Amino acid sequence: MTKNNYHIILADDDEDDRIFFKEALSETVSSATINTANDGLELMNMLSDKLPDAIFLDLNMPFKNGQECLYEIKTNRRYKNIPVVIYSTSSNVDQINSTFKAGANLYISKPDSYIELKIILKKVFTLKCEEYKPQPDKEKFVLKY
Description:
Rossmann fold, 5 helices
């Protein structure tokens, strides 16, 4: 995702995870602004305002889950080119396959430590566009720290 300034949306219903992510991102990518959504409905409403450079999307959220949001994003002509990085506690193979088939660009299992999160974010933001857009090969879909 190499670029000078990034506008990122993180959709995650866990406040601690949002804080953790924002702090790690600010230490890793100085040129990023981040907006957060507490659930899928809030995310979809945010997209009607300004399109982000990328969306980090938790799968388990109330009102509208991440899988539903992913489907809406990837089937909407206005949103479908926004890179979507799944950011989930799940490492379930079926869920990973399902998000890949739905068009997600990358999949990250939420790391256990702050340092691991910074490492994985650095990897995401040093990727070249062609490595994740429109979608990587299946072998490169899941990023590990």
